[in-house]
């Protein structure tokens, strides 16, 4: 009963971001649910793309570590970098999903930033992933992320990002929001990469339950 009341309050309050939204929904639902399935999906996808324990991986919009826990377990010590805007969301993820012992043993690095301050990390990534991040970002924030990441990525690095593809390109809000969906035509998604100095490759369907498409950006 309490959880249903919280869910109704979440909608009534306009789907609030941040601490209030996390408290009302719980951290797993706040990031969209499908916790186990989507954690497994992105982990297995990155393995297919060539991720090895010795690589450094940057998880952009790592949230409460739905995929992060799996990557942290797999990668060598210190090779997981997680960037997140919501401090409370990451704090809950570290406490309830990762745990103190794994935090100590694997030494992941975390940065709280809403301006993609990748230079705060001590290592540069070979791979990066943004699973269900650009689906909530306006065009200006997507370009900011791509531009900053292109300067930070190791040469030859590969960045994988998911999008909602919509060829109608319906007018959208100019402001990003964690609970609003943004959709773009395929050509626009590829052009984002070209404008930012990447070589884009459209992958498309990768098994996402809500049909988010995958795009690869290569730093050449």
Task: Provide a brief overview of the structure.
This protein is an alpha/beta fold.
Structure description:
This protein is α/β, with parallel strands linked by helices and 220 residues long. The chain has a single domain (34-218), classed as Rossmann fold, CATH 3.40.50.150. Helices cover 40% and strands 18% of the residues. Strands 1, 2, 3, 4, 5, 6, 7 and 8 form an eight-stranded mixed β-sheet that branches. Helix 8 (139-152) links the parallel strand 4 and strand 5 (158-165). The chain is globular.
- Uncertain runs with pLDDT below 50, 5 residues or more? none
Shape: globular
Residue share in helix? 25-40%
By CATH reckoning, the class would read Alpha Beta
List keywords for this structure.
Rossmann fold; eight-stranded mixed beta sheet; alpha/beta; 8 strands; 9 helices; 18% strand; 220 residues
Describe the protein's topology.
Elements: H1 2-12, H2 18-25, H3 27-30, H4 35-48, E1 57-60, H5 68-74, E2 80-84, H6 87-98, H7 100-106, E3 109-112, E4 127-130, H8 139-152, E5 158-165, E6 183-184, H9 186-195, E7 199-204, E8 213-218
Parallel strand pairs: 1-2, 1-4, 2-3, 4-5, 5-6
Antiparallel strand pairs: 5-8, 7-8
Helix pairs in contact: 1-2
């Amino acid at each position: 009963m309490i959880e249903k009341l919280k869910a109704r309050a979440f909608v009534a309050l306009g789907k609030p971001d941040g601490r209030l939204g996390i408290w009302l929904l719980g951290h797993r639902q706040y990031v969209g649910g499908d916790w186990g399935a989507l954690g497994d999906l992105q982990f297995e996808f990155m393995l297919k793309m060539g991720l090895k324990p010795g690589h450094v991986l940057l998880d952009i919009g790592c949230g409460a570590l739905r995929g992060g826990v799996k990557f942290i377990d797999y990668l060598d010590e210190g090779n997981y970098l997680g960037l997140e805007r919501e401090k409370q969301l990451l704090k809950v993820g570290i406490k309830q999903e990762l745990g103190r012992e794994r935090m100590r043993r694997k030494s992941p690095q975390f940065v709280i930033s809403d301006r993609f301050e990748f230079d705060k990390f001590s290592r540069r990534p070979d791979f990066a992933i943004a699973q269900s991040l650009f689906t909530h970002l306006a065009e200006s924030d997507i370009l900011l992320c791509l531009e900053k990441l292109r300067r930070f990525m190791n040469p030859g690095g590969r960045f994988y990002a998911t999008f909602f593809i919509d060829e109608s390109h319906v007018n959208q809000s100019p402001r990003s929001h964690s609970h609003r969906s943004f959709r773009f035509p395929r050509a626009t998604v590829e052009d984002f990469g070209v404008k930012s100095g990447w070589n884009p490759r459209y992958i498309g369907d990768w098994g996402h339950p809500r049909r988010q498409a995958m795009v690869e950006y290569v730093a050449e």
